[in-house]
From TrEMBL:
It holds the Pfam family Transpos_assoc. Residues 3-77 form the Transposase-associated domain. This is Transposase-associated domain-containing protein.
Length: 90
């Protein structure tokens, strides 16, 4: 799962594009009743919103820092994907 977009400014095209790919992917593989879990600093995966709202939250509030260090299991990433990407050793 591409997470490089998190390094860019929230108003940059790189961030917007990466965020949209992320929310679209999560919606395809990990949605429930039209929503996905919001990993922003306020919701921290406790609340479900439409991908559009999640994109707004992540743009304004940013992603929870502790979730950035974990496999994104609420958004379709498996532990195996995560280890293969080298995140587990970081
Ligand atoms: Zn949120």
């Amino acid at each position: 799962m591409d997470k490089s977009w998190l390094r860019f400014h929230p108003l940059s095209a790189e961030f917007k594009n990466g965020l949209h790919i992320f929310s679209s992917h999560a919606f395809q593989v990990a949605s429930y009743d039209g929503g996905i879990k919001c990993p922003c600093t306020r919701c921290y995966n406790r609340l479900w919103f439409s991908p559009e709202v999640v994109e707004d939250h992540l743009t304004v509030d940013g992603m929870d820092k502790s979730y950035m260090r974990e496999p994104w299991v609420w958004h379709g990433e498996t532990i195996e994907d995560w280890v293969q990407a080298g995140w587990g050793s970081a």
